[in-house]
Amino acid sequence: MTALEIAxxxxxYGGALAVDDIALSVPPGQVTALVGPNGAGKSSxxxxxxxxxxxxxxxxxxxxxxxxWSPGRRTRAGLALVPQGRQLFxxxxxxxxLLIGADQLRLPARSVAxxxxxxxxxxxxxxxxxxxxxxxxxxxxxxxxxxxxxxRALLLDELVTGLAxxxxxxxxxxxxxxxxxxxxxxxxxxxxxxxxDVVDRGYVLVRGRVVAExxxxxxxxxSAYERALGLAVG
Length: 234
Ligand SMILES: Nc1ncnc2c1ncn2[C@@H]1O[C@H](COP(=O)(O)OP(=O)(O)OP(=O)(O)O)[C@@H](O)[C@H]1O
What we know:
Organism: Nocardioides simplex (Arthrobacter simplex)
Keywords: Amino-acid transport, ATP-binding, Nucleotide-binding, Transport
Radius of gyration: 17 Å
Strand content: 25-35%
Bound molecules: adenosine-5'-triphosphate
Protein name: Branched-chain amino acid transport ATP-binding protein LivF
CATH topology of the domain at 4-78 and 151-229: Rossmann fold
Shape: globular
Helix content: 25-40%
GO molecular function: ATP binding; ATP hydrolysis activity; branched-chain amino acid transmembrane transporter activity
Family: Belongs to the ABC transporter superfamily.
């Protein structure tokens, strides 16, 4: 069964249509990409799926309709988000950020230790303020926090954009391993750079609409994206 299923999703900001009747499937054990240029509606689609922007349409998690649920209830049901910009508490420590994450998920404080183990750098830096971490370390903290509740589906908005190649590699390896363990992963990104080796399938989003659904890894997805943008030669 598809872990996360989205159908007939619309997001409107006032009179502007940001997401226009899209359908996405995010199967377990695979990394699904949602690629599109800036302003295509990727973040809006991801946030609507998690319930943090208003939308209409159906969102199903393991077959159960969750689109009427609050964001917190969706998270506790296994829908985890690493948002663009990460939304960490920059003036709190790594440990405090994880404790707040545990609290929001109604998990015991000891869950923090497991989250720190996933990325050893977080254990080393547990007393550092989140705001002084590098971009890559902040992203690891955001991913570790999202994984604390053992989600069934993980949504990553701009996971690797702007990060150093070594960190990109580390995050990509983590995402691949999570999918191989059975997690359903959706990565929203403006391009496939850094995600080449991890993407199984994906969608191309242009001006709020899905213009291509592609199986077979990053290559055919990249080609479909280039065609959609009118970049393909020949
Ligand atoms: N809170 C908001 N209020 C009004 N319009 C918004 C809001 N958020 C996004 N938009 C608009 O909705 C459209 C889709 O934006 P969205 O951020 O979802 O796209 P995106 O593909 O994630 O782009 P980016 O990669 O730049 O984040 C854009 O035209 C954007 O200007």
